[in-house]
Amino acid sequence: MLTYDAQAHSGRFSGEGRDAATGTRLTGDATFRVTEDGPSTSAIELSIAYSLRGTLAQFGRGPIVQVFARELAEATGRNLEARLSGETPAALPSRLGAGTLMLRASWRWLRDLFAGRKD
Questions:
Q1: Range of the domain at 6
Q2: Which of 30, 81, 97, 113 has its CA 20 to 30 A from that of 40?
Q3: Buried b vs exposed e over 108-118: b needs ≥16 C-beta within 10 Å?
Q4: What are the residues whose beta carbons fall under 8 Å from the beta carbon of 11, sequence distance 6 or more?
Q5: Main-chain phi, psi angles of 85, to 5 degrees
C-alpha cells in the first residue's frame, strides 16, 4: 500500500511477505518526507519499522537482525530515490528468499565486525 501527501511532500508505504522455506513473516511500514537541501537539491528522510516473526525471529536479540533490516532499508531507500529522481529502480528478484537475505546480512555483519576491530 502506498499513500502520498503532495502538499506535505511525504508519504507512507507498507508491505509484508513470507518466506516459504522457513515460514518467516516480515511486515514493514515506512514513512518518507522530501525536504529542501539547498537551492536545487532535496533530501529524503526515510523511517522504516518492521516486525519479524518465525524462524528468523530467533535471531531477534542479536546484531544479525539489525544488519538484515539495514539491508532491506537501504534497498528500499535506493529504489525510492531512483523513483523520485525519475530513474528506473533496480530490479528486485521476483522471490526474495530469507536464505539470500541472511547470507547477505551475515556477510555485512562480519564485514562490519572486522572493520570495527582495532588491531
A1: 2-115
A2: 30
A3: bbeeeeeeeee
A4: 2, 3, 4, 5, 31, 32
A5: -95, 5
Domain count, the chain: 1
Give the three-state DSSP class for 84: helix
Tracing cell 547470507 back to the chain, one arrives at 103
Quick count: other Cβ atoms within 10 Å of Cβ 44? 15
Predicted confidence (pLDDT) per residue in 3-26, tens digit: 989 999 999 989 888 877 777 788
pTM value surpassing 0.85: no
Distance CA 119, CA 52 (A): 35
